[in-house]
Write a structure and sequence with these properties.
The protein has 361 residues and is an alpha/beta fold. The chain has one domain: Alpha-Beta Barrel (TIM Barrel). Helix content is 39%, strand content 17%. The strands form three sheets. The protein has an eight-stranded parallel barrel, surrounded by eight helices. Strand 1 and strand 2 form a beta hairpin. Helix 2 runs parallel beside helix 12, helix 5 packs across helix 6 and helix 6 packs across helix 7. The chain is globular, with a radius of gyration of 19 Å. The protein starts with a helix and ends with a helix. This is Aldo/keto reductase. InterPro entries: AKR, NAD(P)_OxRdtase_dom_sf, NADP_OxRdtase_dom. Pfam families: Aldo_ket_red (PF00248). It comes from Halomicrobium mukohataei (strain ATCC 700874 / DSM 12286 / JCM 9738 / NCIMB 13541) (Haloarcula mukohataei). One of its GO terms (molecular function) is oxidoreductase activity.
Length: 361
């Protein structure tokens, strides 16, 4: 797993970045730009491109790698594991994050996906049909524990640094909000036990809509309530503190709701998800930091003028690194060609607090 001594040594070996490039995550320090592994076809050729890109990123000053068991039908996890175990830096220098919640295929999409889910998960009792939403999403404790075991095998590591429950708001399509909170708490209890056993170091939730929509939205989940459920889970299993540490959510110039929508009850009233996370000392990892490449063609002129960077991609990454609470902005790096441009964004300072606020005035 990532360690304090190794990550700080990694930072010292990459001291040519701007002052706030490396940021705290627990007792470690991590790069404020991270590798995302969502995009790309499930092919051997794309595996090799990811392998080269991740290795280049680790050499260049990025020590955050994010994946999920369902990304590219488990191929992304396996490539990440290969590079982290055998690549250019020590395993202990790298924060490895993955997720469980969407039923994954294995290497390729089966001819009959429904039959695959039935034989692999329903018939074996890993998933109860009542817990399955859309035919492919589940956050029940037994399923998440099974997925965690598979992720450990795919990655080939002893400990996963940050394990997310993936898009829990999907469950709201079939269940009440109270039922989703209850199931999350039960799953958090399992994750707390696995943390005590050393299989994970921290856990959290990765979301798309849940934390950036108003409280009356169908996909809304309360971040404060989820934190309370994690604290309760830790108390139930008699852990001194909760391992709930990370939140993943989309944030970019066009999707800034996590900063602008005040829907989470804090000590002094409602707050945005990012402000609540900042005050609760949670680490936020932004997804869609360049809108899966869409922002590479340009930003609104008034925003671009406020941001440092040579390209629209670099300015977009620096915008995503700017708000309170953000530890790392995740960027898809499915090819070595992307790495140089993305890493170079870290040689510029992101916006300061007052300059960032001014964007929304």
């Amino acid at each position: 797993m990532a360690t304090q001594s190794a990550t700080w040594a990694y930072r010292d070996d990459h001291d040519d970045f701007a002052r706030t490039y490396f940021r705290r995550f627990g007792d470690c320090v991590v790069s404020s730009i991270g590798v995302g592994t969502y995009l790309g076809d499930p092919t051997d050729e794309q595996d090799e491109r990811y392998r080269e890109a991740i290795a280049d990123a680790l050499r260049s000053g990025i020590n955050v790698v994010d994946t999920a068991i369902n990304y590219r039908h488990q191929r992304s996890e396996r490539v990440v594991g290969d590079v982290v175990r055998t690549g250019p830096v020590d395993r202990e220098s790298v924060l490895v994050a993955t997720k469980g919640g969407f039923v994954p295929f294995d290497e390729d999409r089966p001819d009959d996906p429904g039959a695959y889910v039935g034989s692999e998960y329903l018939d074996t009792g890993i998933v109860d049909s009542d817990d399955l939403v859309r035919g492919h999403h589940c956050i029940a404790p037994a399923f998440i524990e099974d997925q965690l075991d598979r992720s450990l095998d795919n990655l080939g590591v002893d400990t996963i640094d940050l394990y997310y429950v993936h898009n829990p708001e999907t469950q709201l399509e079939a269940n009440s909000r109270a039922a989703v909170y209850d199931q999350l708490e039960a799953t958090f209890e399992r994750l707390e036990r696995r943390r005590a056993a050393g299989d994970i170091r921290h856990y959290g939730v990765a979301t798309w809509d849940a934390f950036r929509v108003p409280a009356d939205h169908d996909s809304y989940l309360s971040l404060p309530e989820i934190v309370r459920r994690a604290q309760s889970a830790a108390a139930t299993v008699e852990n001194e503190t909760t391992g709930f540490r990370g939140v993943q959510l989309p944030f970019n110039v066009q999707m800034a709701d996590a900063f602008t929508v005040e829907a989470h009850e804090g000590a002094e009233g409602t707050q945005s998800a990012l402000w609540f996370a900042h005050e609760a000392e949670l680490s936020v990892f932004t997804s869609a930091s360049i809108m899966q490449g869409e922002l590479s063609t340009g930003l609104p002129d008034d925003i671009a003028a406020r941001l440092d960077g040579d390209t629209s991609v670099q300015r977009s990454i620096n915008f995503a690194r700017s708000p309170p609470g953000v530890t790392s902005a995740l960027v898809g790096m499915g090819s070595p060609e992307h790495v140089v441009e993305n890493v170079a964004a870290g040689r510029y300072e992101p916006l300061g607090a007052s300059a960032f606020d001014a964007v929304f005035e």
